[in-house]
Amino acid sequence: MSRLLKITFLIAIILSFQPQTLGLKPDNHAHREEVLKSITSEELMSYVYELTEPKYKGRLAGSPEYMNVAAWVASQLESWGIEPLGDNGSYFQYFDWPYTEVLSKGEVNLFRNGETISLSAPDDYYPGSNSANGSITAEVVFAGYGISAPHLGYDDFAGIDVDGKIVMIAGGTPYTGINVDTLNLWGPYSSGTHKMETAYRQGARGVLYLDKLANPGTPWYPDFYQAHLDNRITEKILGEPLSELLSLIREGFAPASFQTDFTAQITSETVRHEKGITANVVGYIPGHDPELRDEAIIFGAHLDGQGYLGFHFPGALDNASGVADVMAAARALAAFNGQMKRSVVFIFFGAEEVGLVGSTIYCQNPAFPPEKTLLFMNLDMVGNGEGIALWHGESYPEILEHFERNNQKYIGRSLRANEGRMPVGRPRTDGLVFMQYGFRTFHVSTTDRVNPLYYHDPRDVPENLTPDIMRDVSALLFLGVLDLANEESLVPEELFLIQ
After folding, report:
1. DSSP 450-497
2. Closest CA to 92 of 109, 75, 79, 117
3. pLDDT reported for residue 2
4. Which CATH number fits domain 101-271: 3.50.30.30, 1.20.210.10, 3.30.70.360, 3.90.1150.10?
5. What is the CATH number of domain 22-98+274-494?
6. 37: three-class secondary structure by DSSP
7. Among 255, 256, 166, 246, which residue's Cα sits nearest to residue 202?
8. CA distances from residue 191 to 116, 187, 261, 367, 427 in whole angstroms, order as listed
9. pLDDT at residue 15, as a whole number
């Protein structure tokens, strides 16, 4: 065999192992459009309906039901040929997380001057996600924002006796300024977790939280009871709208705590599980370029929800919508497995609702470190609207242009972006955790809301989503990431990073 024939033969053998001979079409216009058309509203909603099934009991972090839904998501990734990137060759990045199983709605009753007012869930109250099992009957004390911060010149508990009593506390803080350093000082005091911890340390036996929403992130104590009140009930107890009372506190930057003339009874039926296990679900499509495969583009969406409080919390918008969008984009990008130079990672976070735990654990143990991550995109509540937003996109114009170009050519939605900045105060989403750990981050959102917003509410059902915007979000992410994965001119270490 001549030298030329030998070279020709070797080239033919090498080419025979290239991706196009593995049943994959080359990344051309026709194939891109074919895969793009496969992303449908019906596909997106099929994921949402599965994720919101009552059998998963609201996807509470730590519960067996959460691990069941995590296993279902992992099975979809596996069926699409997306490789595992979790512990020991699995799709799961495990961590311990205790949880409280709520068995019923419980009871909340109010007493005054011989009168009994029996409240009804979910209209008048939600039971606490982390109440002790049993009952407490005690006097009710209004304790403003539930903050004890003498070093900041403010203490709602100064001069009042809450020992053994039930305290009413509101969300937020009394600080109304805009100084960033001061806002950061006040940030920790704004969380319900901190407020309930403070009430317990002050000797209270229960809390009536003045914001009717499910909150699985509150602390659990063996002799401490919680419920979340509707504003109508709050006004009945206080004798005036809560908003007016809080306005006076803010204006004078002075507590207005007082003993009400009500006694309350909180009864809970719960089981505490200290040995709960949860996990992030992590999969990826490895890049094929010998050098660029060590760089990644990451999608993230939190998989956990608010759990079960004697009634079902579907968590459709928050955050089955974000999970479904990532899944559809993942399935589409899997059609280009072997044809993307960079790796693409998909993370479904556990324990976001209890304090951004899953995203923190990933950032502390990343498969791709910040300096090798071109972009992290967080999707949270992206299923209700007519427009698309890539918040912080203007800080990264070299990246944003890939999404703008594809939106103009294929999607045609209003596309908004802004310049980013580091979070002030208490982080509230997984994307802000990634920013704090030095990752370049887009916060993917929808704009121009169409349907009512039900936040941590049992009315957050699939029927309140707008499937067409979910389809277009997934399509835009698929197109933009496909381009970015093959864009050789972008060097992560050389791109701007918000500090």
Report:
1. -S---SSSTT--GGGS-HHHHHHHHHHHHHHHHHHTT-TT--GGGS--
2. 75
3. 42
4. 3.50.30.30
5. 3.40.630.10
6. helix
7. 166
8. 32, 8, 27, 30, 10
9. 36
Dihedrals phi, psi of 420, to nearest 5 degrees: -95, 165
Report d(CA 231, CA 236) in Å as an integer.
9
Residues forming beta bridges with residue 265, ordered by sequence position: 109, 137
Average the pLDDT over each of 183-187, 248-252, 366-370, 389-393 and give the range with the smallest value.
Answer: 183-187
269-326 pLDDT, tens digit each: 999 999 999 999 999 999 999 999 999 999 999 999 999 999 999 999 999 999 999 9
CA 361/CA 94 separation, integer angstroms: 9
Classify residue 298 by burial, with Cβ atoms within 10 Å: 0-12, 13-18, 19+.
Answer: buried
Angular region, 310: left φ>0, alpha ψ -120 to 50, beta rest: left
**pLDDT tens figures, 409-428:** 999 999 999 999 988 777 78
pTM over 0.90: yes
The answer to whether 101 touches 271, Cβ cutoff 8 Å, is yes
How many angstroms from the chain centroid is the CA of residue 320?
10
Write out pLDDT tens, residues 346-393. Answer: 999 999 999 999 999 999 999 999 999 999 999 999 999 999 999 999
Residue count (the chain): 499
Residue with tokens 């205790």: 98
Is residue 311 within 8 A of residue 389, CB to CB? The reply is no
State how far the Cα of 155 lies from the Cα of 417, in Å rounded to an integer. Answer: 40
Q: List CB contacts of 202: < 8 A, sequence separation 6 or more.
A: 148, 157, 162, 163, 167
Phi–psi pair at 159, nearest 5 degrees? 80, 5
* Both tokens assigned to 188: 């920790």
Mean pLDDT of the chain: 93
Domain boundaries of the chain, sorted by first residue: 22-98+274-494, 101-271
In Å, how far from its chain's centre is CA 362? Answer: 14
pLDDT at 256 over 90: yes
Question: ∠432-346-363 over CA atoms, to 5°?
Answer: 40
Summarised one tens digit per residue, pLDDT across range 15-70 is 333 333 233 455 578 899 999 999 999 999 999 999 999 999 999 999 999 999 99
pLDDT of residue 425: 72
Contact between residue 183 and residue 177 where contact means Cβ atoms under 8 Å apart: yes
